[in-house]
Amino acid sequence: MSTADAPHLPDALVAYLERFARGEFWESHEALEAAWRANRSGFYKGLILLASAFVHVGRGNAHGIGAQLAKAERELAPYAPAYLGLDVAALLAVARRGQRLARTHRAAGPAEWRRLLPAPRLRVEPARIRGDEPELRGRRPEG
Predict the structure, then answer these.
(1) How many CA atoms lie within 13 A of 12 on its CB side?
(2) Across-strand partners of 83?
(3) Which of 13, 27, 83, 87 qualifies as a FRET site for 133, CA 20 to 30 Å off?
(4) Range of the structural domain that residue 107 is part of
């Protein structure tokens, strides 16, 4: 499903998803930054960290990949198994796999990293949008 088919999602999240799908990881991070600053959503922070990890994949920076994915995992874990229509459990699996790879492939270059850890496809499943997520109302999440 494309983000165009999920009209209830916040514009910043839609922009993030579209840019991430195109492999524009820094730009996807930037698309969500203002919304995260406005509401301090841990979910948004986790997505920003995920995008940052894939910036490091493009640079072949194993330390950066592992560090950003560890932070992304911590932020996203409370939202599993799904949140705002995204499969958070699958993102957590990517984060864990990437951290393991970062420990064992320190010398890998960018091309090898893109092969070892391809970016996940972030697909929105409308049935997995609860409708009461604070990000949908633009207010600060509880907790």
Answers:
(1) 21
(2) 86
(3) 27
(4) 10-130
Please enumerate in sequence order all residues whose Cβ is within 8 A of that of 27, keeping only pairs 6 or more positions apart, or say none.
19
Q: How many domains does the chain have?
A: 1
Q: What is the pLDDT of residues 53-84, one digit of tens each?
A: 999 999 999 999 999 999 999 999 999 999 99
Residue 1 forms part of a structural domain:
no
pTM above 0.85, yes or no: yes
Contacts of 66 (CB under 8 A, 6+ apart): 98, 99, 102, 103
Query: Residue 86 belongs to a domain with what CATH number?
Result: 1.10.3450.10
Q: How many CA atoms lie within 13 A of 91 on its CB side?
A: 33
Residues 6+ apart with CB under 8 A from 89: 80, 81, 82
Cβ count near 45 (within 10 Å): 18
Q: If we measure between CA atoms, which residue out of 21, 48, 28 comes closest to residue 120?
A: 21
